[in-house]
From TrEMBL:
<dbReference type="InterPro" id="IPR017853">
    <property type="entry name" value="GH"/>
</dbReference>
<comment type="similarity">
    <text>Belongs to the glycosyl hydrolase 84 family.</text>
</comment>
<dbReference type="InterPro" id="IPR011496">
    <property type="entry name" value="O-GlcNAcase_cat"/>
</dbReference>
<protein>
    <submittedName>
        <fullName>Beta-N-acetylglucosaminidase domain-containing protein</fullName>
    </submittedName>
</protein>
<keyword id="KW-0378">Hydrolase</keyword>
<dbReference type="InterPro" id="IPR029018">
    <property type="entry name" value="Hex-like_dom2"/>
</dbReference>
<dbReference type="InterPro" id="IPR015882">
    <property type="entry name" value="HEX_bac_N"/>
</dbReference>
<feature type="active site" description="Proton donor">
    <location>
        <position position="306"/>
    </location>
</feature>
<dbReference type="InterPro" id="IPR051822">
    <property type="entry name" value="Glycosyl_Hydrolase_84"/>
</dbReference>
<keyword id="KW-0732">Signal</keyword>
<dbReference type="Pfam" id="PF07555">
    <property type="entry name" value="NAGidase"/>
</dbReference>
<feature type="region of interest" description="Disordered">
    <location>
        <begin position="23"/>
        <end position="46"/>
    </location>
</feature>
<feature type="domain" description="GH84">
    <location>
        <begin position="191"/>
        <end position="474"/>
    </location>
</feature>
<feature type="signal peptide">
    <location>
        <begin position="1"/>
        <end position="19"/>
    </location>
</feature>
<keyword id="KW-0326">Glycosidase</keyword>
<dbReference type="Pfam" id="PF02838">
    <property type="entry name" value="Glyco_hydro_20b"/>
</dbReference>
Length: 665
């Protein structure tokens, strides 16, 4: 847990001393404004990820006319551009950006963004009397919208990323013509937060990757690991340099990541063919990493997952490490990783500690392999771990503690959700809540990334939940994040020159109904760790109880209303959600349309039965059956996802009810 021991005023006084402002005495501690468990109070906008605290300071501040933005050198160009864009969308006629010391503009509103110890920033925050402690960690920021006649906004940051994240929060505080009069204290719970493109099947397109990197900036994810299994230059052809066209795309991705404060982590997976004892292979590996370093990469990973340690790739490895075994594979891998850490990472300025995916990447059972890694591997190397299984049913603090014991270090979570590249996920798109990850994991993990789906835009539903959790797991609410994902896709976002930031309520409700139908998430054997269609299940259970209790017409009326929402959802989503999300989910939307019509026909059949018209009831049940047959003919294709198959919608819930309904008497 992140304890906050001092008041905002005392912390600000300490910062002023650090900034050389010793002429200002410490202020008495002020009681914090009303807030409950760091959740937004009445009149406080929802911000995603959930800040450590957000409190109402006073009335909203108007945005009109000219706005002046004063920035320290800490504030990079992309943050300045984002601030300008946010203020223009909020209603500013003109936004002028200047450095401290330049002549002031005659502006209706001033925004000051700078280092947390800058005297002007400190005093502005102090005058706002937020009553909260000031964060000192990397990527942290404090924001205050002063509700007085000065009409000022202050953002104090720890570093450039903190300033960027402060403006990302400001983006969520604006509505047409105003900024919410609030104070925000914020810092990330996990130092590494993001996604790993580590799935099998069709890789993301270049444009999808570019969009994902911009999206990560929106939701304060700071890590993208480039590790697509089907990129030959990542795995099979790892020794070969990227051709110029592919290298040009990687170069563009690196630039896009930097513009949104995302660490572009280049992963190279040589395990299927590397000869650990051959200096030529080490030189080839080092040359590949060097090429990426020259392009600006400062984060590297060596995944050695999904390979065999029952054979060597060359005779020299058996001479060096003995017969193939778990232990000898662990020693060979540790030697390779240590050499990369020592001879490449340590000799290249700015490179972060090496990341590594072990061959035994799941569970918490000790083994000869894990023992070798624990005893030989440089303690700085980050070890990735998927939980108590390849697809875990849950991830607990206890699991992470046990993993730390067997690996000899805090592990870096590779969360295999919402990935859908395994047989147990055939026919599924994962749109469920980010759930069954225990609060407190931020204290036990070195960081966390999710492994998304082949469908990049649809993966944002779970990615938003993961962003919320990894930023502030202490106050994480899966349902709140799930709704936030629907609101984001329904328009509550800043993209290009869109005119507003408010979500369309009808699209939000349609998306939530659709998400519910695709809530089920399986482990490797296909059994559920997230249940299918929990909201639909609840409503069907309520219907059955009311029907059995005799209030049949009222029961059907409630059922029909929800069936109508499902039946209308595909059309509303196609009209109101982003094009890429609609494209990703096209087959599932088409199937939902048919299943919705089937549920409506079933409700009408039950209504006819309740009215005593059995002939009409049978006709409506037949109509439902035809719609079900149409839905079952809809399949995904190998070009979209691996493995392809019949598209599934609330299976085990919706199909079961429609099949059983004609038997209800």
């Amino acid at each position: 847990m992140r304890a906050c021991a001092r008041s905002f005023a005392v912390c600000v006084a300490g910062m002023m001393a650090l900034a050389g402002c010793t002429n200002s005495p410490p202020q008495p501690e002020e009681p914090a404004p009303q807030s409950s468990d760091a959740l937004p109070g009445e009149g406080v906008p929802a911000v995603v990820p959930q800040p450590e605290s957000i409190d109402r300071l006073g009335q909203d501040v108007a945005v009109r006319g000219k706005v002046e933005v004063v920035v320290d050198p800490l504030v990079d160009r992309q943050t300045q551009d984002l601030a300008k864009q946010v203020l223009e969308l909020a209603g500013a006629d003109e936004v002028v950006v200047r450095e401290p010391g330049a002549p002031a503009e005659d502006a209706a509103l001033r925004v000051r963004i700078g280092e947390r110890t800058s005297p002007t920033v400190v005093k502005g925050l102090q005058d706002a009397r937020m009553g909260a402690p000031v964060p000192m960690e990397k990527e942290a920021y404090v924001l205050a919208v002063r509700p007085d006649t000065d009409m000022e906004v202050f953002i104090g940051a720890s570093d450039p990323a903190g300033a960027y994240y402060g403006v990302q929060t400001l983006r969520q505080l604006v509505s047409p013509g105003r900024i919410a009069g609030v104070g925000v204290l914020d810092r990330p719970a996990m130092p590494l937060r993001g996604a790993i493109e580590g799935f099998y099947g069709p890789p993301w397109t270049h444009q999808e990757r570019m969009d994902q990197l911009a999206f990560y900036g929106d939701v304060k994810l700071n890590t993208y690991v480039y590790a697509p299994k089907d990129d030959p230059y990542h795995r099979e052809k790892w020794r070969e340099p990227y051709p110029e066209q592919e290298l040009g795309e990687v170069r563009e991705l690196i630039g896009q990541a930097g513009a949104h404060h995302v660490k572009f982590t280049f992963a190279l997976s040589p395990g299927n063919s590397i000869c650990y004892s051959d200096p030529r292979d080490f030189q080839a590996l080092q040359a590949k990493l060097q090429a990426m370093y020259d392009e600006g990469v400062r984060d590297f990973s060596l995944p050695l997952d999904d390979i065999s340690y029952t054979r060597w790739n060359c005779a020299g490895d058996e001479q060096a490490y003995g017969r193939p075994s778990e232990g000898s594979a662990g020693r060979a891998q540790a030697d390779l990783l240590n050499r990369v850490q020592r001879e490449f990472v340590d000799t290249h300025p700015g490179v972060a500690p090496l990341q590594f995916v072990p061959t035994e990447y799941s569970d918490v059972e000790d083994s000869e392999y894990k023992t070798a890694i624990r005893e030989v591997l440089d303690p700085r190397v980050l070890v990735m771990w998927t939980g108590d299984g390849v697809i875990p049913r849950q991830i607990t603090v206890s699991d992470a503690q046990q993993a730390e014991t067997v690996w000899g270090r805090k592990v870096f979570l590779w969360d295999n959700y919402p990935v859908n590249d395994f047989n147990g996920s055939r026919g599924r798109i994962m749109l469920g809540s980010y759930d069954k990850r225990e609060r407190g994991l931020s204290d036990q993990l070195a960081g966390g990334v999710v492994n998304p789906m082949n469908q990049a835009a649809a993966s944002k539903v779970v990615e938003i939940g993961a962003a919320d959790f990894s930023w502030n797991d202490e106050h994480f609410d899966p349902q709140r994040s799930w709704r936030a994902a629907a609101e984001y896709l329904a328009g509550k976002r800043l993209a290009g020159d869109e005119p507003g930031v408010q979500a369309d309520p009808a699209t939000v409700e349609s998306l939530l109904a659709f998400f519910d139908l695709e809530h089920m998430a399986p482990v490797a054997n296909g059994s559920a760790w997230l249940p299918p269609a929990p909201e639909l299940s609840r409503r069907l259970d309520a219907f059955r109880a009311a029907w059995a209790g005799g209030d049949r017409r009222a029961a059907v009326q409630d059922l029909r209303a929800y069936a109508q929402l499902i039946a209308n959802a595909p059309e509303r989503i196609r009209a109101g959600a982003p094009r890429d999300f609609v494209t990703d989910t096209d087959h599932w939307l088409a199937a939902t349309d048919q299943w919705g019509q089937a549920l409506l026909a079933t409700a009408n059949g039950l209504d006819a039965r309740a009215a005593g018209d059995e002939g009409m009831a049978r006709a409506r049940f037949d109509e439902a059956g035809w719609a079900v047959d149409s839905a079952k003919r809809i399949h995904s294709t190998p070009a979209e996802v691996r493995p392809a198959g019949q598209v599934l919608v609330a299976d085990g819930v919706l199909d079961t009810f429609i099949a059983q309904a004609p038997g209800l008497r």
